[in-house]
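ARCHIVE RECORD
Type: protein–small molecule complex
Small molecule: alpha-D-glucopyranose
Source of inputs: curated submission
Record status: active
Notes field left blank by submitter.
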Amino acid sequence: MLKPGSTPGKTDWFVHDRFGLFIHWGIYSVAARHEWVKNYEKITDEEYRKYFDHFDPDLYVPEVWAKAAKDAGMKYAVITTKHHDGFCLWDSKLTDYKATNTPAKRDLLTPFVEAFRKEGIKIGLYYSLIDWHHPEFPIDGIHPQRDDEEFKKQAKDRDIKKYAEYLHGQVRELMTQFGKIDVLFFDFSYSQQEYLGMKGKGREDWQSEKLIKMIRELMPDVVINNRTEIPQDLYTPEQFQPSGWVHMDGKPVVWEVCQTLNGSWGYHRDSSGSFGDNYLAWKSSEMLIKMLIDTVSKGGNMILNVGPTARGEFEPKALERLSDIGEWMKLHSRSIYGATQSEFKTPQDHRFTQNGNRLYLHIFSWPFKHIHLDNMADKVEYAQLLNDGSEIKIEKHNMEKEHSSMSEKINSKTLTLVLPVQKPDVAVPVIELFLKQ
Ligand code: GLC
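STRUCTURE (tokenized, with ligand):
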């Protein structure tokens, strides 16, 4: 079975746990039209201020979030401590641009960390390397004021070194004031991009090497993603399903696909697809469950995002999906936790995951009566449906007795599973195959 090489942080728990919650929450939740709204609409700091002044999450009870995550089967949670707009959820000593100065009047990160830890969920912090509020962050092609000539003139002496100092100071706060942090998710580098002669930013700008060194001293085992442009523990593709195990330089790596419920990370009120914007359509629970299975079948983790509302709640559509996933996980998590890509080739419309001598066949499309598995006749000792532990009969083929005219595909090495006609009443049925040792 494929296994990635070791990395500076500790990833054992991470690759075991497989399923996490992403939270994008900040003052963009007030605008409620994507966390990039400041960029998309080229909003100035002055105009954006209204979201700061009206951020009042009076319904924020992180215990409720943690319970929903736990019931969904999520084992870790990563929250945006600061997103690209520069707004901070915690009481950073290095800025006034933080939750304590909004109508929220309190640090919103500490209660989150406490509530999730209490549920036994590991803690991840997302931190945006990009900052569209900081006065020393040089204007570039993704800055909201990228086309504002007057603004750019005034900002021409901005010093990225001073910004980097701020960034390092904030990360130090995050690594020292919230107890043990399990994941640190940086976002993101774009040094290869250029816009109207303005270069993107990356490793040199963030002083990533120094940054990583500091973090490793403070929190040696933390799982760090690759978006500082210094490879650490984790690769994080987003908004698509990789076609197989993610490789870098020809080697399999630890990876986590980042997915949304509805195309937007931050709360998006009108993301019903009603504007004909298919990108912002909601995914069904079944699709999300299949994405999780597909991910683990390729040796990866999936982190699924919820964008809470400005008042601090998960909206009903999000809760409904989490609860559907949880219902499936309650019966099937054995095929997810601790499982990985199998060495066996999966038949069409199925996904295999494997954990030791247990092989899990996920049936994406329920067929009539039979599933034929090539070259497995002598490999399996017992089979059962995972949702109710009921036996699935196995048929082997004696080609001398059988009419080989039935199908060219069936031969003496074929193992045939005999299914009930009706699909079990679960989103994705799974057959657990016990392999011979
Ligand atoms: C990004 C986006 C963003 C989101 C993130 C999640 O690169 O800029 O808004 O936070 O990916 O992975």
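CURATOR ANNOTATION: The first strand starts at residue 19 and ends at 23.
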